[in-house]
Amino acid sequence: MRLYTFEHQGTERIGCSRDGRLIEIIAHRGGMISFIASGRKAMEAAIQSAIQSADAASYAIGEVKILAPIPRPGKILCSGINYRGHLEENPKAKLPATPFFFSKLPTAVIGPKQPIVHPRMTKQLDYEVDLAVVIGKKMKQTPEGEVMDCLAGYTILHDVSARDVQFTDNQITLGKNFDTFSPTGPCLVTTDEIADPANLPLRTYLNGQVMQDGSTSDWVFTLPYLLSFLSHVMTLEPGDVVSTGTPAGVGYFRNPQVFMRPGDRVVLEIEGIGLLENTVIAEE
Length: 284
Description:
Strands 1, 2, 3, 4, 5, 6, 7, 8, 11, 12, 14 and 17 form a twelve-stranded mixed β-sheet that branches. The protein has a five-stranded mixed β-sheet with strand order 9-19-18-15-16, with no helix packed on it. A two-stranded antiparallel sheet has the order 10-13. The longest helix is centred in the first third of the chain and has 13 residues, at 40-52. The protein has six helices and 19 strands. A hairpin with a 3-residue loop joins strand 18 (265-270) and strand 19. It has two domains: 2-66, no CATH class; 76-282, Fumarylacetoacetase-like, C-terminal domain (Fumarylacetoacetate hydrolase, domain 2), CATH 3.90.850.10. The radius of gyration is 18 Å and the shape is globular. It is an alpha+beta fold.
């Protein structure tokens, strides 16, 4: 099932897609995190109730504003250097012995079609397509074999980066967390819809040109290992977002370098999830 967070008449709502339309899940209006935290059986029951109800509100996708699936996650953790191709294109990178993570902050999250703001502080605004997972139930020191049962689903995360800020004194947090630097969406695809997350093609298009063209089969660390490792460091909770790294082709390591500029249109694509599209505007 494809789950959406959307805005209609100034109110945030959640819904599922059916025959090209969004059906509001009226039985649960506490937001996507609360919906996920209710548990898989309760989610399935609420979805079926909405689909079967003659009174359920239904909208064409074009008549509502699609938001990020999780508009304000509790935590956003991003895996760095988790594709062999991205490792090879970075002359300073070394094969990590254990997973490496950095944080993106909830204030950086925007949804599809919302503009990425090009800060005046950077001249190196870079793109990165990431497959992200949304945690479905609490994870604490979770064994690898139990990880997949703890996931609510998958989405696309655009790890926008200001490279000249990021690589100055290794300021990863600052370079990754300007407002609008975490476009996410367009939806949350439940785990039953994607049979093998470790074999998904993913691409970035900048003004129609393919910049990244990879597959999750190039991961250094598997998804169960990544999340199990992370859960031994911190407790993961429903609605937390964890991304799994980016493939080769980022702008900083191209020759010549390529960066996003105001007026650009950037589209991220992951098979089985869809397209995440945003434009770039100048900071006012």
